[in-house]
Amino acid sequence: MKELIDLSNLPRHIAVIMDGNGRWAKRQGAARVFGHRNAIKSVREVTEGCAELGVKYLTLYTFSTENWARPKYEIDALMQLLVHTIRSEIPTLMENNVRLSTIGSIDTLPGDCRSELSEAMRMTEQNDGLNLILALSYSGKWDILEATRKIARQVEQGTLSPDQIDEELFSHSLATDGIDDVDLMIRTGGDHRISNFMLWQLAYAELYIIENVLWPDFRKPHLWEAILAYQNRERRFGKTSEQLVK
Ligand code: IPE
Ligand code: IPE
Ligand code: MG
Predict the structure, then answer these.
(1) Residue 38's beta-bridge partner residues?
(2) I need a surface site. Which of 15, 65, 177, 234 has the fewest CB within 10 A?
(3) Number of folded domains that form the chain
(4) Is residue 165 part of a domain?
């Protein structure tokens, strides 16, 4: 199926809502954390898959602002898992020429998590293949509010006039500064919602919801299928079909 993908028409930026770990664990009578542990293999698959094809940006919704409202033991387990995984996955990132970065309110993460992340980012900063962006303590509304504060401060200082605030300036003020908007958004677990993910950056993304696959079961063939579906969509960006030059 991978051979059917048109490499000249790849989504430049894929974003994934990795949902369904808890349900996956529950189905086999295990605790939710068991599902999170089994999600790592899926993260590796989607990362390698994107790197193999030559996708430029992959953003993974790893922990949302709202996820802080989960039971403390689940949050602690997720943070611990993150610490261990970042360290153990560095060889995979290096082999695949992947550069790691983050978006979100990183200051709110535990100290060991932050230090593992900065170490991994430092180690991979020379890689120039896929950019893997982990959205951690992230939400779309948080991102928009932070950007607004940044812009308001510049106006207050007199270095920016309100008339200069346009789409380009605003998008450069977001956490995704310099990164193209999302072309393809994949969500596993069957829920048809954005869950406060990248609200601005998803404005014209093609949405691909996988109804019957929970995140721990996600493998490369699911990625190929999503990209093929994307390539069969007509992205009109408000124009008529006839206006599109093929
Ligand atoms: C996604 O799986 C992982 C995180 C949100 C951290 P869930 O933990 O939301 O699993 P479900 O949706 O409850 O099955
Ligand atoms: C979205 O999943 C957040 C992540 C995958 C990190 P949730 O499970 O938190 O979303 P809702 O609550 O079902 O919308
Ligand atoms: Mg969920």
Answers:
(1) none
(2) 234
(3) 1
(4) yes
